[in-house]
Write a structure and sequence with these properties.
Number of strands of chain B: 0
Shape of chain B: elongated
Low-confidence stretches of chain B: 1-55
Largest sheet of chain B: none
Radius of gyration of chain A: 23 Å
Low-confidence stretches of chain A: none
Shape of chain A: globular
Mean pLDDT of chain B: 86
Structural class of chain A: mainly alpha
Order of helices and strands of chain A: HHEHHHHHHHHEHHEEHHH
Order of helices and strands of chain B: HHHHHHHHHHHHHHHHHHHHHHHHHHHHHH
Number of helices of chain B: 30
Distance between the termini of chain B: 139 Å
Helix content of chain B: 55-70%
Number of helices of chain A: 15
Strand order of the largest sheet of chain A: 1-2
Largest interface: A-B, 23 and 22 residues
Oligomer: heterodimer
Mean pLDDT of chain A: 90
Chain lengths: 360, 520
């Protein structure tokens, strides 16, 4: 039953200039499947929200941050001590970065376990995986920018891993470090990557990712596809899903505020390149499972350097994960391929266990 | 060696002497006469050791008394001769052989006159590390080893003109240390040392930087004065530097290495029996150990901290006079001494014969100065002369000075405490904490300015520090306020966001109810 709706002057002005029928049609038609696992759909939105937070706080930090030997650490100190609410912006930026990586991981695994990467959504998976890789790149490059002791040595260890790539490893490491050692040249390079290259690429890929979702609609649960008689319920995207998304965003914002104020992100001590590495140096938690696993590789395996083999295996595993839509074979009956589930469980368990061991 | 043959041997020697005397001359008779007179008592002869076995007749001494005269004759007075050591004991050879070639044959172990550098080794055959009944009997230590390991031994290794045993002890007429004829007898040893250490041309060969006026200074010291008057208990060179194990002052093994000086001086000055005749107190070392100087030197191993010799002098050791105390302290505490000299206290102290710095700070037991010394009451140094009464014009200066110091030092302590609290709350206070470093200068300067004993002197120095302290305190309080503001802000923000969440939830429910209603 249609109501006579009051139109605001702004809406009227817009409607006089633009044809909004396509948008209105899209908004009216867009639906989200409603079932037991619907909750996982929200992590895409949460990741998007946290990315927006990153962009906003990042731009604010950029107004004061100055990369350089004598300025990087000092400018961050200035931000957190002198700039009005600078401490809050910086703390939110750091916490939000971590939550975003966590959210993107959860989003990826939910897509994986629900097999939403299958035809016709292979491209969505590829772009999503690329966004995860870019998020990790954001984390890695941003970690160095405060130019404190921990970030310096973590970057040193992290970039060192590149050197074991057979053949081009040392060159790759040198490109990444902008020299043989981690230096202010590395800092400038990482700054450029963090505030220009990665945001540009990320925005493009994110645009593609969202466009694909828009074009193909939100994936429905696999069980609906196989069970013709299944009861299918949908929720309108506008306003139901969007409002629920907004609700979750507010909760995440609340969590973010509590974390930022109650546990302000530490600045640490300024880099002393001549000092020895602090004991127990570790990378950020999202790299920890790889770092910890590499420790278990023996020095040499079948004549190969153990670490190189480990990095190689992670490379192959990452590539396999990326390409899962291409090698995941449906069963002849078109039912779920259980190997995918078990493999996913093993990978999740592996990441969790290695991260916990690494944190201890 | 059994007693019976010895008695026979002595009897034969006595008979020979008698025969020679009766013969009344002739070289042979001289030799024979020399034997019994120069023959050491049998019970003192070295046996079975590095020292030569006694010859029934010591032909060496006989001939050399005739040929060389004084040197061989001098040996008859030598402590070694008396102990039974023959010429062969040092020079080797066979003293029983009358024939020169046989007696001085290398096959018989003849070494002749040793090279200077070989002398310590030669003496060390008895005065060294090796064990022998002779050494045990005469209680000989490892003097040669100590000498060779020390500064003199090092000098000798590098230059044959360097000192060796005979440089101090003499050659053939060596006397016991307790013998006043010995060059190392207490009243002689300083001159003996000065023979080399007072000779610039000689010393230049080994250590051109070493002063050569130690002996001159020593003569001006209390020790030197007593020594010159024949007091063998007064300290000489070897009392402090040791006799054989002498090391350079910069060598930690040296008895006069800075950290060992107090203990070396205390060897005598803490000995009540030794000091009793002089009526000197013996608690200086104990007091020094507890003093700020003693703690710095002995506990903290700060080699710049003063030891006994820093105030009393080393070779010219004497207590500083009343007028010179400030000068002595002022060699290190220069600014304090200058201010004191210009202050009213200088003249007042002089007129009453008070020895400057030590009146307030003490001498051997100099405690770490505290601000409670300034003022009235417990720990006050002013109170011994001044009174906290309006009639005393100094009272107001004293009280004002103390108040200024308190606001600087106590103010800083309070600011540090507040900053630590802010830091514990997670606030960044690095800048404020760093700014407090600037207060150090004001603190040192204002404590020094106390010695001007003038109105306004301390205040002027403390003012910049007090300003920094106030700013740091304000920064700490601001940080603590900011912390609470953030918590309150978080509370408000959380409430607002939570309210929005609730409202949104209600809105969603409302919309969905309406949708359901419309569907129906």
């Amino acid at each position: 039953m249609a109501h006579e709706r009051r139109v605001s002057p702004v809406e009227k002005a817009i409607r006089e200039r633009f044809d909004l029928s396509y948008v209105e049609h899209m908004a009216a038609e867009k639906k989200v499947p409603q079932f037991r696992g619907s909750f996982w759909y929200y992590f895409g939105g949460v990741s998007l929200f946290l990315f927006i937070v990153q962009v906003v706080t990042g731009i604010l930090l950029l107004m004061y941050y100055q990369p350089g030997e004598q300025t990087a650490f000092e400018s961050v100190r200035f931000i957190i001590t002198k700039v009005k609410f600078g401490w809050l912006i910086r703390s939110i930026h750091s916490w939000s970065a971590n939550l975003m990586v966590a959210s993107v991981f959860i989003h990826m695994f939910s897509v994986y376990f629900s097999r939403a990467f299958r035809k016709p959504r292979e491209l969505t998976w590829f772009t999503g995986f690329t966004l995860l890789a870019l998020s990790l790149g954001f984390g890695f490059s941003g970690y160095l920018l405060p130019w404190n002791t921990l970030s310096y040595f973590a970057t040193k260890v992290g970039t060192q891993m590149m050197a074991v790539v057979p053949g081009i490893g040392p060159q790759l490491m040198e490109i990444l470090r902008a020299g043989k050692e981690v230096s202010t040249a590395t800092l400038t390079r990482f700054f450029g990557l963090h505030v220009a290259v990665l945001p540009g690429v990320f925005t493009l890929v994110l645009g593609a990712h969202l466009l694909l979702i828009q074009l193909q609609g939100i994936a429905e649960p696999e069980s609906w596809e196989h069970d013709r008689g299944a009861r299918r319920r949908y929720m309108p995207f506008f306003p139901n899903f969007v409002l629920r998304d907004l609700l979750l965003w507010l909760i995440v914002l609340n969590v973010l505020a509590i974390l930022a104020v109650a546990f302000p992100w530490e600045l640490g001590r300024k880099v002393d390149t001549l000092a020895s590495a602090p004991a127990g140096i570790k990378p950020e938690w999202y790299f920890l499972f790889m770092y910890q696993s590499l420790k278990y590789f023996p020095a040499t395996v079948l004549g190969m350097e153990g670490e190189a083999l480990g990095v190689g295996l992670f490379g192959v595993a990452g590539l396999m994960w990326f390409l899962v839509p291409l090698w995941d074979a449906r069963t002849p009956a078109g039912l779920r391929n259980r190997i995918i589930t078990w493999l996913g469980v093993v990978v999740v368990m592996f990441i969790i266990v290695m991260t916990i061991v690494g944190l201890r | 060696m059994s007693a019976a043959p010895m008695q026979g041997w002595r009897r034969a020697a006595a008979l020979a002497t008698l025969a020679a005397a009766l013969a009344g001359g002739g070289a042979a008779a001289v030799v024979m006469a020399a034997e019994p007179a120069g023959t050491p008592p049998a019970q003192q002869r070295p046996a079975g050791s590095a020292a030569a076995q006694p010859a029934a007749v010591d032909h060496c001494l006989g001939c050399h008394t005739e040929l060389d005269g004084p040197e061989a004759k001098g040996f008859r007075t030598d402590v070694h001769f008396r102990a039974g050591v023959t010429c062969a004991g040092c020079h080797g050879g066979d003293a029983s052989k009358e024939d020169k070639d046989e007696a001085m044959s290398p096959a018989a172990g003849f070494r002749g006159k040793p090279r200077p550098a070989a002398i310590p080794e030669m003496c060390g055959r008895c005065h060294g590390a090796s064990a022998s009944p002779f050494k045990t009997r005469h209680k000989l230590g490892d003097a040669a080893g100590a000498f060779l390991g020390g500064a003199h031994g090092t000098a000798l290794k590098g230059n044959a003109a360097g000192p060796q045993c005979v440089s101090c002890h003499g050659v053939h007429g060596i006397a016991a240390v307790s013998d006043p004829r010995s060059p190392v007898y207490p009243t002689n040893v300083t001159r003996t040392c000065a023979r080399c250490h007072g000779d610039p041309a000689y010393m230049r060969q080994f250590n051109p930087g070493l002063p050569v006026d130690q002996y001159e200074k020593y003569l001006t010291s209390v020790h030197g004065d007593r020594n010159r008057k024949g007091d063998v208990r007064a300290a000489t060179c070897v009392s402090c530097h040791s006799n054989h194990a002498i090391y350079q002052v910069k060598d930690p093994r040296s008895a006069v290495y800075p950290t060992r000086v107090p203990e070396t001086c205390g060897k005598c000055h803490s000995d009540k029996a030794r000091m009793a005749p002089y009526g000197i107190p013996t608690d200086q070392l104990e007091k020094y150990r507890q003093s700020v100087h003693g703690i710095a030197l002995l506990k903290n191993s700060d080699l710049n901290a003063p030891a006994c010799n820093s105030c009393h002098g080393n070779h010219g050791a004497a207590p500083p006079g009343v007028r010179s105390v400030a000068g002595v302290c002022g060699t290190c505490h220069q600014a304090n001494a200058e201010l004191f000299d210009k202050s009213k206290h200088r003249a007042a102290f002089d007129s009453q014969g008070l020895p400057g710095c030590v009146v307030c700070h003490g001498n051997h037991r100099v405690d770490r100065p505290t601000d409670s010394m300034i003022g009235f009451g417990k720990g006050s140094a002013c109170e011994s002369c001044h009174a906290n009464q309006p009639s005393d014009p100094a009272a107001s200066i004293i009280l004002q000075t103390r108040a200024t110091l308190d606001s600087l030092f106590a103010g800083r302590a309070e600011a540090e405490k507040l900053l630590s609290r802010a830091e514990q709350l997670g606030m960044d206070i690095a800048e404020a904490r760093y700014s407090l470093k600037a207060v150090n200068q004001a603190q040192v300067e204002s404590r020094v300015k106390v010695h001007a004993f003038e109105k306004g002197a301390v205040e002027a120095s403390a003012a910049p520090g007090i300003k920094v302290v106030s700013a740091a305190r304000a920064a700490a309080l601001a940080a603590i306020r900011e912390y609470h503001f953030r918590r309150q802000g978080l509370g408000v923000a959380t409430l607002i966001i939570t309210a929005l969440v609730v409202l949104l939830y209600l809105k969603i429910r409302q919309i969905e109810r309406r949708q359901k209603h419309e569907e129906r």
